[in-house]
Structures are given as structure tokens and as C-alpha cells.
């Protein structure tokens, strides 16, 4: 028995080492950015570099939060992301439910078409979409940007919701129908509470995807008043004055914090939601 336990422990060592190495690769740049955000600009570019600042300062964070355009950029990021996810759920929940529960001619072809639309690179649609919006005078429209962002996450939302609904036993709905419940009542009062973790997972993925989107806002809403935190961050790289690395790292930390806090808040639902659709019956 001790030999078997020893072999099992020895077999876990490569996995542990691999996880440790991956953790360093992933967390290393984040920790470096975090440390740099507390440095002065002189210390941020000193050679050889220092791992942690000798005299940590909050000056960079103060500059970020006192920037007149920061709150506007933050509001735009929140509005676009939350709005896109709401639209995607309003479309994806009924569509996913229909795909899971109804049988109709051409259903498989339709679902594959929906899936195929998510495989089209967004860059390939930039030029025709730009000319269309410019022609009808809808450039720099926050509503249009939100709709475009939602269109990019709707296909995956439909497929995820369909899988989550399929994991709910059909007998539960049959019993509700016998009791006189309508289809809307079944979806609202029965299905939605049961697939709540799945909805949380889909919403989390959607917000992270839209929050990190740069090209859509940069192309279709070039006005400064319509830009997001991501666009503002990239614009600093092209600033004629030069790059302040300590300030930029503080900006990165602040811009990333809303998504990090949100993920920490819904982590339990997110994990259970990702695994819920994998088990049927």
C-alpha cells in the first residue's frame, strides 16, 4: 500500500510543477505591473530594475483617479459591457430554450449557422460596418456600439443556454404544464432559477469579453467622450509626450479591478455554471 501511495505521490509531482510554472507565467506580469504602479517614474525605468519600490507611493493612483476623463471612460466601459450582456441574455435565453426544447425542420443547420457566426473574425467586418454606420450617420453612437458588442457574444450565449436548459429534466416542465403553467411562466419561474449558475457564467464571460474589447470602440466611436478605459490606455502608448510606465501600470490596475472584483463575487456561480451544462438528466 505504501508503494502504491508513493507512486501516486510521485506521479503528482510533474502536475504540481507544471501548475507552479504556469502560475508564475500568468501571475508574473501582473505582479510586476502591480509593483511598478507604486514606483516613481525614475525608479520604474532604472537599470537594473527593482522588484519592489524602495519608497512605495500612491501618486500614480491619485493621478489616475483625478484625471477628468477617467470617470467618463469608466462609465462607458461599464455601460457598453453591461448593456451588451443584457441584450445578449434577452436574445440568448429564449433562443437557447427554443433550441433545447423545440424540434423543427432545419434546427441543426440553424444552430450550426449561429455557431459559425461566432467564428467570423471581428476585424473582417470592420470596414463594411464602418462605411455602413458612416453612411447612415450612426458613428459615435453608444447604443450602436453596445449592439455590435452584444452581437459578438450572442452566438456563444445561445449555445451555452441551450446546454444548460437541456440539463434540466423535461419531466419538471411537463408537471408544470399539467398544473396549468404557461410557457412564459415555466421559463421565468422554473427554468431561470434552475440555470442561474449557468446564466452567471455566461454573463461573466460576456462582460470580460466586452470589457477587454478595444477595436470595436476605437473604430466605431472615435470621439474622446465615447471611448472606454481600454481605448484610453492604448492612446497613452501613442502619446507624443512619451509613456509614463508607472502611471500606465496604475491605470492598468484600476481598469482591471472592476472585472477582477466581479469575478471574485460570482466565482462560485461561475464554476458551477460551467460544469452544469456538462451533465444531463
Automatic annotation (TrEMBL):
It comes from the Bacteria. Residues 74-266 form the ABC transmembrane type-1 domain. One of its GO terms (cellular component) is plasma membrane. It holds the Pfam family BPD_transp_1. It is a multi-pass membrane protein. CDD domains: TM_PBP2 (cd06261). The keyword Metal-binding does not apply. GO terms for biological process: transmembrane transport. Keywords: Cell membrane, Membrane, Sugar transport, Transmembrane, Transmembrane helix, Transport. Its main location: membrane. The chain crosses the membrane at residues 12-35, 78-97, 109-131, 143-165, 186-208, 245-266. It is found in: Cell membrane. InterPro entries: BP-dep_ABC_trans_perm (IPR050901), MetI-like (IPR000515), MetI-like_sf (IPR035906). Coiled coil: none annotated. Belongs to the binding-protein-dependent transport system permease family. This is Multiple sugar transport system permease protein/N,N'-diacetylchitobiose transport system permease protein. It comes from Rhizobium azibense. The lineage of its organism: Bacteria, Pseudomonadati, Pseudomonadota, Alphaproteobacteria, Hyphomicrobiales.
Amino acid at each position: 500500500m505504501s508503494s502504491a501511495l508513493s507512486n501516486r505521490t510521485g506521479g503528482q509531482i510533474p502536475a504540481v510543477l507544471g501548475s507552479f510554472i504556469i502560475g508564475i507565467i500568468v501571475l508574473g506580469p501582473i505582479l510586476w505591473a502591480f509593483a511598478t504602479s507604486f514606483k516613481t517614474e525614475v525608479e520604474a525605468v532604472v537599470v537594473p530594475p527593482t522588484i519592489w519600490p524602495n519608497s512605495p507611493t500612491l501618486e500614480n493612483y491619485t493621478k489616475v483617479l483625478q484625471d477628468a476623463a477617467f470617470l467618463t471612460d469608466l462609465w462607458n466601459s461599464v455601460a457598453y459591457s453591461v448593456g451588451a450582456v443584457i441584450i445578449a441574455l434577452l436574445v440568448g435565453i429564449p433562443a437557447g430554450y427554443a433550441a433545447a426544447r423545440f424540434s423543427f425542420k432545419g434546427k441543426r443547420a440553424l444552430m450550426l449557422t449561429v455557431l459559425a457566426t461566432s467564428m467570423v473574425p471581428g476585424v473582417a467586418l470592420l470596414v463594411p460596418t464602418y462605411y455602413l454606420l458612416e453612411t447612415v450617420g450612426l458613428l459615435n453612437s453608444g447604443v450602436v456600439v453596445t449592439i455590435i458588442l452584444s452581437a459578438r457574444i450572442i452566438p456563444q450565449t445561445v449555445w451555452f443556454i441551450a446546454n444548460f436548459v437541456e440539463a434540466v429534466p423535461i419531466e419538471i416542465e411537463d408537471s408544470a404544464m399539467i398544473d396549468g403553467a404557461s410557457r412564459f411562466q415555466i421559463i421565468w419561474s422554473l427554468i431561470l432559477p434552475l440555470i442561474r449558475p449557468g446564466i452567471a457564467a455566461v454573463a461573466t464571460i460576456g462582460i470580460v469579453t466586452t470589457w477587454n474589447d478595444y477595436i470595436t470602440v476605437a473604430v466605431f466611436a472615435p470621439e474622446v467622450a465615447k471611448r472606454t478605459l481600454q481605448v484610453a490606455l492604448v492612446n497613452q502608448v501613442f502619446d507624443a509626450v512619451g509613456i509614463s510606465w508607472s502611471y500606465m501600470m496604475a491605470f492598468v490596475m484600476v481598469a482591471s479591478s472592476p472585472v477582477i472584483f466581479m469575478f471574485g463575487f460570482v466565482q462560485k456561480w461561475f464554476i458551477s455554471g460551467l460544469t452544469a451544462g456538462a451533465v444531463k438528466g
